[in-house]
């Protein structure tokens, strides 16, 4: 059995159909073990037999759609991938906060992904890089202006489509901690 994290896109915790308990129930119904939620925004950790990530993503997404009407956006990463990402320390000396909003944007299918810098300068964002093993863009965002989405986030979706999902670095740390407990 391997440990995995499902990073779900489009989860609205206020929607009763998308409660942590119901989402966990879908994972348990698929026969996964050690199913647990991390934060109320679509992060589920679980154990499953070793297999292909894309097969896990497809099974989970089909079940979420069929049972809860959740339309899309399941990205799965193994414990090893996420642990290695944390251990790489891409944000040395920084802590997550308003002026240093540390983010990781995970790409579902990196096949054919050409990593490139954003075309438009965004004074509120500094791209740190792309972690190939975790298939994640890493950036530091000044998120002090409420209600304004950085150009970088819009650029990511325009460039890579909706098969991406972003988590704060703090959430990634919490996911890995839950996977290890």
Automatic annotation (TrEMBL):
It comes from the Bacteria. This is DUF1697 domain-containing protein. It comes from Nocardia callitridis.
